[in-house]
Amino acid sequence: MIIKKADIVYLEEIAKIEEKVFAHPWSADSIKNLLKDDKSAVFVALKENKVTGYCGVNTVLDEGYITNIAVLEEYRRKGIGEALVKALCGYAEKTGLAFLTLEVRKSNLPAIKLYEKNGFKKVGERKDYYSSPKENALLMTKFFE
After folding, report:
1. Which of 2, 60, 122, 135 could form a disulfide with 46 if both were Cys (CB 3.0 to 4.6 A apart)?
2. pLDDT per residue over 20-45, tens digit each?
3. Which residues are catalytic?
4. String of DSSP letters for the chain
């Protein structure tokens, strides 16, 4: 498995992952804008030249807001999600971000455990943040020195 910074050539595969993984996927245009934005970074996980997962972050000054972390179902529990989280953390440290933050479904225990394992702490909750089904989101943040 290889984790690398993504560019526009991965747009179609990332969009397909969005459609498979999320109830409300980002549009290809939104992903394209993220890939082109110099205040954002997107990483892909490649296995045999196939995108098996991806993640993204938007930055504002020294703050990092994780957009999505997604791994195709057939590749889960193989360390890909953790490798993507570590890529985001490495990017945050390299670029001098004060923190990374994200929202996660309160019921998504595997993701919550992954984030906690990588230094993220629960810092709040957003009521009814998600739909399909309606659910609260936990806010999780990792601070850097």
Report:
1. 2
2. 999 889 999 999 999 999 999 999 99
3. 103, 115
4. -EEEE--GGGHHHHHHHHHHH-SSPPPHHHHHHHHH-TTEEEEEEEETTEEEEEEEEEEETTEEEEEEEEE-GGGTTSSHHHHHHHHHHHHHHHHT-SEEEEEEETT-HHHHHHHHHTT-EEEEEEEEEETTTTEEEEEEEEE--
